[in-house]
Each structure stands twice: as C-alpha cells, then as structure tokens.
Amino acid sequence: MYKTSDENFITLLEHFSNRFTAPKLCINNTTDVLASNLWSKLSNSNQHDIELVCENSDLKFSTHDLKHQGFILKLYQLNCPYAYLFWIINYFKDRTITLDYQGHLSKQVKVNRGTPQGSCFGPKTYIVNHFDLPSIFDCPSEVHLYVDDLAILFSPSIYLKYAQQVYEIETRINKDLLKLANYAESNHQPIYNKKTDTWLRDEDSPVLVRLSQLISALTNLTMETAEEVHVVNYGVGGYYSPHLDFYHKWENPAYFRKAGNRIATWMTYMSDVEWGGATVFPLSGGHIVPKKGSTVFWYNLNASGEADYRTLHAACPVLIGNKWVATKWIHEHGQEFRRRCSLDPMV
Ligand SMILES: O=C(O)CCC(=O)C(=O)O
Ligand SMILES: [Fe+2]
C-alpha cells in the first residue's frame, strides 16, 4: 500500500520542477466534422474544461477525473507537509490547455481536473487519491483498483439457497455502492453511477452506415426514420433504472409528427461484463447477460401501434468491469409496408 512519505514527494518535485508550461493536447485521427464540433463547443462556451476532450473516455476513475480541489483536500487529510502541499497547489493553479487541430490553436481552456497527459504525476496522484478506497466497503470479498477502473467482488460463494438471499445480496450491494458514491462525493470525484453516453451519426464513419444496413436487413425495417446510434458506457456501480423506451403522444406531439414513436429497440453489447450489468425485463421475467457482439432486439409497440408495457426494462449495476452498449431506436414512420398493422390492440 502506498504511503505518502516525504521521499515520494521529493521525487515528484524533481520530476516536475521543469514543467510549469501549459500542456498542449493534439487531436489526431479526428474527422473534420468532429473537430469542428469540438471547436465550436469550445469557442462558444467558457464552461468547458478538459472533460470535453475526454467525453468518450471510460477512464472515469483515472486522474482525468481527478478534481484538483479534491486532491488537495486529500493530501491535507493525509498530513502532507505544507511545503509540498503549497507546491502542488501552485502547480495546479491557473493551469490551462490549448487544443491544436491541424495547426489551429483554440483559445486557452481552464483545467481544474486531471494531470498532464504522459506525466508521471498522473499515476502517483491516482494512487494517493484512491489508496484508501478499498477500506470503505464492508461486504465485498475483494476490491481491485486499476488506473482506469474499480472492481468490487462480492463473495464468490453465494449460492441462492432461499429467496430471501436475493434480497440480502441486493441490500449488501446497494449499501456498498452508496458508500462508493459518498466516498466519491467527499473526494470531489464524479461517480458515474448512471451512465455516460454519446450519439454517433452515420456520417461519422462507414462502419455506422454498414451497421444501419445490417439492422435494416435483419429486421426488415427502414432506418430512414431511426435515431442516431446511442453509445452508452457504465462503470462500476453504473445502472439504468426501469424505464420504457417509447414515449406517449401527450409528452411531445412534435416528436411524433416527425417520425412516429419508437417502434423497436436494437441494442448491441460492445463488451463483456465480468459481473453485473444484465439487462432485465421485470414484467416479462427475462434477463440478458451482456456478451460482446451479441444483440437484443424487441418491439416496443404492438402491431396496432399500442404501447407494450411488458417491455419495461432496466440495466443492473455493473459490479466488476465496464459495460458498453450501442442502441438504435427504430421509429414507426416508413414501416407501414414492412411491419403490417393489426386492429387488435393486443397483437
Ligand atoms: O444498458 C442496458 O442494458 C439497457 C439500456 C437501455 O435500456 C437504454 O439505453 O434505453
Ligand atoms: Fe431502454
């Protein structure tokens, strides 16, 4: 286990004594569209910080998300000598970042989290910041910490002998995840116990065009009115509460005029999840364990266009690993000759 001895900080000081200039981040392999989006977001707002650059990153527990304020507090709690503390406060103070896209420099963006890319300050701050994390959990048999993730392993010898046990396990898991959230809060660390997401348009990559073609071929539904691909990432503790994918007309009539309701959901798991993260359908009693490359497809509406409430579903918390899904919501308009209507509301 890491100890914050003077020696470690002296090493840190040596490494960083020459590094007071603002780091420059180059975006490579970025399409013009993405870069100009990024560019306009940056120039239209002074709210954005380094988070914007890392918006698709899953390194939620890494030092990218290390808030400087929280880190300083932690060092203080660890009785870090004042001389080093002040040096580090100074090091983070007024740090800015400039994006370089093909020689075009953005204006400077204030950085209040993360450590410069490639610096050895990163791993060290990570260790200092998280070294006491495993101790907060009561229940798990093991907690593993990685630079980019955390794994909470619950007792491997749980056999479901009686129904009550399910409730007990759930209570234990929830208790520990709550502690994790509180820990994150007091360390000024964001914990993404919901999900992080982004949307990908067909224009972004030929792969997405092929995906749309594949979905259309397999479902016999048109993708003309479908939504962009919704990519979602869940870290440890990440979940999605029970919900329905379709909308009700009274919620947003304009939405319905455009393409109709979400007739069907196509969801591809882009990763395996070591433990947890299943998609559950509580009303129909089914659950799907994520498996990289596999897909779930279901109709949200009956053939009459009526909402099918049996499609209520949720994503269980991830306990070990990381979960990635890509979802395509397919709409009603254009399916008239592809999925025949029925007058029977139950069909
Ligand atoms: O991640 C999952 O398993 C479910 C995701 C989902 O239901 C949604 O994004 O609407
Ligand atoms: Fe959903």
From TrEMBL:
The lineage of its organism: Eukaryota, Metazoa, Spiralia, Gnathifera, Rotifera. The keyword Acetylation does not apply. Its cofactor is L-ascorbate. The keyword Ligase does not apply. Keywords: Dioxygenase, Iron, Metal-binding, Oxidoreductase, Vitamin C. One of its GO terms (molecular function) is iron ion binding. This is Fe2OG dioxygenase domain-containing protein. One of its GO terms (cellular component) is endoplasmic reticulum. Residues 225-332 form the Fe2OG dioxygenase domain. InterPro entries: Oxoglu/Fe-dep_dioxygenase_dom, P4HA-like, Pro_4_hyd_alph, Pro_4_hyd_alph_FE2OG_OXY. Pfam families: 2OG-FeII_Oxy_3.
